[in-house]
Design a protein that fits this description.
- The complex is a heterodimer.
- By secondary structure, chain A is of the alpha+beta class.
- Chain A contains 7 helices and 12 strands.
- Chain A has helices spanning 3-11, 63-72, 83-101, 251-265, 271-276, 285-291, 306-318, and strands at residues 22-30, 37-43, 47-50, 54-59, 113-119, 124-127, 131-139, 142-158, 161-173, 176-187, 211-220, 223-232.
- In chain A, the strands form 4 sheets. A 6-stranded mixed sheet of chain A has the order 10-9-8-7-11-12. A two-stranded antiparallel ribbon of chain A has the order 1-2.
- In chain A, strand 1 and strand 2 form a beta hairpin.
- Chain A is globular and about 65 Å long.
- By secondary structure, chain B is mainly beta.
- Helices cover 8% and strands 38% of the residues of chain B.
- In chain B, strands 1-2 form a two-stranded antiparallel ribbon. A two-stranded antiparallel ribbon of chain B has the order 3-6. A two-stranded antiparallel sheet of chain B has the order 4-5.
- The longest helix of chain B has 7 residues, at 39-45.
- The chains are: A alpha+beta, B mainly beta.
- Strand 5 (113-119) of chain A pairs antiparallel with strand 2 (12-18) of chain B, so a sheet runs across the interface.
Chain lengths: 326, 91
């Protein structure tokens, strides 16, 4: 199948019978060379221009907001960002947009997001999964007020089913936490239904992740903001988090302990850069921010120094033994 | 309605899509949005005249053709071996 084949099909559509179709796609033509060769096509989907990315094709009621988001995403200017990193960043930014504005569903878009790209490591198209979203709270100019909110949201894939996994933890009494909610939503591909799958084969989906997005609620004198900070790991590196085994231990401490354990594995050379920086380079976070290295703090909109937020997060992570989250 | 997009990163193609599928038909179907709850109940309480459910909109065909779309009926009229049928949705 070629782009020409598809265009023939699209041009054969009877506009009297089908007048509300928007379609975007790419045809992968050759992956044997150093660069993938492909062609794109679209049907009734407009184009926009985004910094660094160039021409972007979008459709649907959310496309306008997406185009605006791209204009504000200055982290896209990183010259060495891989397709995986950009996909992960955009997925985080879209979730951030959904929770920050609360307007996406009312405008009939959102609910969850997917990205597919060609990964040179595997040499194939892959949907981007194993992304954990954590939620934090801080008051502007009161950095000591930073809190890790006990909400966790992860996207993953089982076969070709998208899994939206979430959990919330609450204080039962004293320092005893209990699981308040533990939910999983399965989203089937087009033309399929979850009933088509033997879900008894689905094993427990924990909160292990390959990449984590930290959404930081910022209480400002003028209202609220929601900053996005992203940590990305080298392909294959995962951190396991499970809520099933939690009893007395705080869920957040378990999460932090896992982070710390990983830091120990890496020699604890620089836990700060590990925790929210790069597990590979161990460069100081500020340096990462300046150089735009593999891992970085991404700022999705202005008004707050995202590196300051990252420093705060890192500081809390580093000292959690002495000052545990409550 | 929906969000679909295609962009290029370091010469590699990328497709982005949401999962929301809206409908004017009110069925009372419970759809949980993570960390939010039953989104259809929230929509009903807010006076929104539609319901939603979830479906993937990015499809990889034959391992080589990623496709996103919000479509009505995609009519077979050419040489494809199989036709594509998308769920009906207003845009």
């Amino acid at each position: 199948m070629t782009e020409a084949d598809i265009n023939i099909e699209l041009s054969a559509i009877d506009p009297e019978k089908i007048n509300q179709l928007q379609l975007i796609g790419v045809v992968i033509e050759d992956t044997s060379g150093p660069r993938i060769r492909y062609s794109g096509f679209s049907f009734r989907a407009p184009y926009s221009h985004a910094p660094k990315l160039g021409r972007v094709c979008g459709g649907g009621s959310g496309s306008g907001a997406f185009f605006e988001l791209l204009q504000k995403s200055d982290w896209l200017a990183q010259t060495d960002a891989s397709p995986y990193q950009v996909a992960h960043g955009l997925l985080g930014a879209l979730i951030n947009e959904e929770y920050r504005t609360g307007k996406t569903i009312g405008n009939r878009w959102g609910g969850g997001f997917e990205a597919v790209t060609f990964l040179t490591d595997s040499g194939r198209l892959e949907k981007i999964g194993d992304i954990l979203h954590t939620f934090w709270s801080v008051r502007e100019r009161e950095h000591e007020t930073l809190w890790l909110l006990p909400f966790f949201y992860k996207t993953a894939y089982w076969q070709d089913v998208l899994i939206l996994r979430s959990a919330t933890v609450e204080n039962a009494r004293g320092d005893i936490l209990k699981l308040k909610s533990d939910d999983m939503t399965l989203v089937a591909p087009t033309l399929k239904d979850i009933g088509d799958y033997n879900t008894s084969e689905l094993e427990q989906i924990d909160f292990s992740y390959r990449a984590v997005c930290c959404h930081v609620f910022i209480e400002k004198s003028s209202g609220y903001d929601l900053e996005l900070v992203i940590d990305q790991r080298k392909g294959g590196a995962r951190i396991a988090i499970s809520f099933r085994s939690i009893r007395r231990a705080l869920a957040v401490v378990r999460l932090l302990a896992e982070l710390d354990q990983r830091a120990v594995e890496y020699g604890r050379r620089n836990i700060t850069s590990f925790a929210l920086g790069s597990a590979v380079t161990f460069k100081p976070l500020r340096e990462l921010g300046r150089t735009g290295s593999r891992a970085a703090a991404y700022r999705t909109f202005g008004g707050f120094n995202s590196l300051t937020v990252v420093d705060l997060l890192v500081s809390k992570l580093k000292n959690y033994d002495e000052a545990p989250f409550v | 309605m929906t969000l679909i997009a295609q962009l290029t990163v370091n010469d590699a193609p990328m497709l982005i899509g949401d999962v929301l599928l809206s409908s004017e038909t009110i069925t009372g179907l419970k759809v949980n949005l993570p960390l939010v709850g039953d989104i259809n109940q929230i929509l009903a309480d807010g006076g929104f005249p539609f319901e939603v459910q979830f479906t993937q909109k990015i499809n990889v065909l034959g391992g080589a053709l990623p496709l996103v779309g919000q479509a009505l009926w995609f009519k077979r009229s050419g040489p494809w071996k199989s036709s594509l049928l998308f769920r009906q949705e207003r845009i």
